[in-house]
Amino acid sequence: MAGISVTERWQVWKGFRYRVWERPVPGSTMPPLVLIHGYAACVEQWGRFIRDIGPDVPVYALDLIGFGEASKPRHAEYGRAFYLAQLEHLRHAYRLARVVAVGHSLGGMLAVEWAAAQPEIVASVIALAPGGLLSGDEFSPRQQAVMRKFATPAITRLLFGLISHLPYRLLSAPAYADRAAMEPYTQAALKRALRSPGAAWSYSALFRNQAAFHAAARTAAVRCPLHVIWGARDGQVSRADIAALARRFPCLTLTELEGGGHCVHEERSREVAAEVRTLLVADGLLEPVPAPLMVAN
């Protein structure tokens, strides 16, 4: 994608490989942004944001194990603890003393969980349309029993085979209020990941082992600033979901963008990037850029 200046590197953790798009800024003293994508997503979805946030902001975007171009092992212990451990591996690999956790959807909730688990490390959380980690009471015992039956290997392979061959326009419809915002190269990357070996097991992990995705963070554990950016046309995270999150974390700040859908960082990238810069300045993590001089006519 034009305008992105990143280096793509591979990291190996527990024998699993995952990609990192890195853009360090030599001499910068601000904690770098660690960009965490959502469930069934990939680093390509951060392309516009990386361009628009500005070259003075260091960023590290990763593919979570099981998604994008990362390894997709069948028997990995996918879930909250697994992904928090991967984030810590990335942090140690790049020797990052402090970070700003920026996450979308499931990644947004992982960012909150990371801040609770590592309060001395995470300097700020910016969650975009946060959702995905379960609280444990979303499904009744009967619904859980039905899902366990459908989670057998044979049925998982059958259902995933059917789903993965549906038109991608149909599969991705709930994530976008404006489908024209999806870059062709992003759509190609998502299709490629969906149809790659092992995807059946990573993409179905949330349904096969719901308990592993239960949220654990509480208000007292999150000591850093917590910001939420949400699109008012989000078809996956509702206004009621955002209100429930605000009750759970009364300290959070909320920015609502009219017209944005679930993938608000793609659909309204410039506005999201501008708001993130404003929040970083407010948190004392980024120096404000001087306003341009006014020249008299």
Structural write-up:
By secondary structure, this protein is of the alpha/beta class. Helix content is 36%, strand content 16%. The protein has helices spanning 47-53, 80-93, 106-117, 141-150, 153-164, 168-172, 184-194, 199-203, 205-208, 239-248, 264-267, 269-282; strands spanning 7-13, 16-23, 33-36, 59-62, 99-104, 122-128, 226-231, 253-257. An eight-stranded mixed β-sheet has the order 1-2-4-3-5-6-7-8, with helices on both faces. Helix 1 crosses helix 12.
Briefly characterize the structure.
This protein has 297 residues and is of the alpha/beta class. The protein has helices at residues 47-53, 80-93, 106-117, 141-150, 153-164, 168-172, 184-194, 199-203, 205-208, 239-248, 264-267, 269-282, and strands at residues 7-13, 16-23, 33-36, 59-62, 99-104, 122-128, 226-231, 253-257.
Characteristic terms for this protein:
297 residues, alpha/beta, Rossmann fold, 12 helices, 16% strand, globular, disordered C terminus
